[in-house]
């Protein structure tokens, strides 16, 4: 765990080129509309990158009580990393085509369990060379199964407790209940502040300056990650906000992985739309 703190949560390709250790590039493209990330990978990916299937390896079975993308059993996650050829000692640099807001899920999971991982700032667009279309050959690896750390997780009682500051990583229209294509009730958890994860990025999909990022969180009343809970629709893009808080030196918050897909099914709980 201690060594992992030396790995920044966001890195660029120049940083990767200066590393002496083995780096595994992980393509984590995934789409809320159901389009296949694997198809995007097959059309072109960074040289040597392996494809990590979010639905197969980074999520458990969906349910009303657990949300759309609950964390998988640790044994499933470990099996997925083994199949992708990721070793315990590897540094995983994950990317997508959305500025890292999807890749953050894998990176959060790895960092939370003491492995070494970072998001590639700018994603696939940050690479200027030709893409590969042939899948990388992955040799089954040794990857240790580790439990999800309770101190980095929040449940629905935490997300509704005044003891925590709660931030919603979804776009403003979904937060306000103006638009929700996937969940039964539009809106947000009462008291939650909106910090859209995509507002952490500039028009090119790269992280804003630290001053701009800090302003995003300060406007939501967040000065520290301590007792901060991050959620989104289903615990994917909420990880980006948690990694940005770590990037800013504000500490490590908690992930409410069930997110709005769990909360919106709890019909006895109130919904806010303003």
Tell me what the structure shows.
- There is one protein chain.
- By secondary structure, this protein is α/β, with parallel strands linked by helices.
- The protein folds into two domains: 145 residues, 3-Layer(aba) Sandwich (Oxidized Rhodanese, domain 1), CATH 3.40.250.10; 113 residues, Rhodanese-like domain (Oxidized Rhodanese, domain 1, 3-Layer(aba) Sandwich), CATH 3.40.250.
- Helices cover 25% and strands 11% of the residues.
- The protein has ten helices and nine strands.
- The longest helix is centred in the first third of the chain and has 10 residues.
- The chain is globular.
- It starts with 9 loop residues before the first strand and ends in an 11-residue tail after the last helix.
Number of strands: 9
Average pLDDT, all residues: 96
The class by helix and strand makeup works out as alpha/beta
Enumerate the spans where pLDDT stays under 50 for 5 or more consecutive residues.
Answer: none
**CATH architecture descriptor name of the largest domain:** 3-Layer(aba) Sandwich
Relative strand content: 5-15%
Helix-residue proportion = 10-25%
Radius of gyration: 18 Å
**Tally of helical segments:** 10
Q: Name the overall outline.
A: globular
- By CATH, the topology of the largest domain is Oxidized Rhodanese, domain 1
């Amino acid at each position: 765990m201690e060594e992992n703190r030396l790995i920044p949560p966001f890195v660029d390709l120049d940083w990767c080129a200066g590393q002496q250790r083995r780096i595994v590039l992980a393509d984590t493209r995934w789409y809320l509309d159901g389009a296949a990330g694997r198809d995007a990978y097959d059309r072109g990916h960074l040289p040597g990158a392996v494809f990590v299937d979010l639905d197969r390896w980074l999520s458990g079975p969906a349910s009303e009580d657990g949300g759309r993308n609950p964390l998988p059993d640790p044994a499933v996650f470990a099996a997925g990393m083994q199949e992708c050829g990721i070793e315990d000692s590897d540094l995983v640099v994950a990317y997508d085509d959305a500025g890292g807001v999807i890749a953050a899920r894998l990176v959060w999971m790895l960092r939370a369990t003491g492995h070494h991982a970072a998001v590639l700032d700018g994603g696939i667009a940050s690479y200027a060379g030709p893409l590969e279309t042939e899948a990388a050959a992955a040799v089954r690896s040794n990857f240790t199964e580790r439990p999800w750390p309770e101190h980095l997780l929040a449940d629905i009682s935490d997300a509704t407790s005044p003891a925590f500051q709660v931030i919603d990583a979804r776009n403003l229209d979904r937060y306000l209940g103006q638009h929700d294509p996937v969940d039964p009730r539009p809106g947000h958890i009462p008291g939650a502040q909106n910090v859209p994860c995509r507002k952490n990025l500039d028009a090119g999909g790269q992280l804003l300056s630290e001053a701009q990022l800090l302003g995003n969180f300060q406007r939501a009343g967040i000065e520290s990650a301590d007792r901060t809970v991050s959620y989104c629709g289903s615990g994917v893009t909420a990880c980006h906000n948690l990694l940005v808080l770590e990037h800013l030196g504000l500490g490590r918050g908690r992930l409410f992985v069930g997110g709005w897909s769990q909360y919106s099914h709890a019909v006895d709980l109130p919904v806010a739309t303003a």
